[in-house]
Amino acid sequence: MTEHIAEPVIEHLEFSIEAKSENLRQVFDLVTAKLEAIGCEKKTIRQCKLCTEEIFLNISSHAYNPTTGNVDITLDILGDPESNNTRAVLTFADTGKPFNPLEKEDPDVDAPLEERQVGGLGIYLVKEVMDGVSYSYRDGHNILVMEKKIEGV
Amino acid sequence: MEIREQINGDTITVSIIGEIDGTNVSECEAALDAAMGKAANMVIDMGELDYISSAGLRIFLMLRKKTIANGIRMVIKNVTEDVQDIFSVTGFVKLLPIE
User: Fold this and answer.
1) Which domain holds residue B47?
2) DSSP 8-class letter at A20
3) I need a labelling partner for A37 at 20 to 30 A (CA). Which of A49, B39, B42, B80 fits?
4) CATH code for A9-149?
């Protein structure tokens, strides 16, 4: 998924894993280890971990249900170290049924306790926490790309 | 994640240490439910909680409803900056009794 990116790739991580919630720990370990290795600050690591969790669990519960399948996860650290524009780009690709999670209506975050719904909060958090999120359906794949600026790397 | 309980008179203090994520959320919910029945007042100390995802938010929404239904006074204390950010952006600051 990196062929269109012209800027330098500082680090690259790519793996494929079955989309089931039992694998979440392993996904966390791989993604956060790479971010720690480049000296990313804790807050940004937690934000990337959060969005990884929300998207991975979303795929494991929606994309293949009731069957199973894999998710291809890519983490690219992009940017010229001298330009102070380093970004983490996380890509999740699955071959489940076409599903754009970004089309889901945002939850009403002002609703009182009695009316508060628990659904939709995960995707909402991803939209709020990341600097950019996009979805496309291409060659039989749901492709979700999210991007977060990394300070001080 | 680690959960510690301390009972002092009619108050139980539950300290949640580490991270509440999709790998331990059921364990956390069970511990909070068990603690809720032990005293009339419930203090949740989040001073060492660094991470919460939507799965974790869900259990606090449920806990808030359960404590109200059971007449238990619930208070959340010492929320860290990263967790506060999540409570703010999701509007949970208005739903939870945060001190």
Assistant:
1) 2-94
2) -
3) B80
4) 3.30.565.10
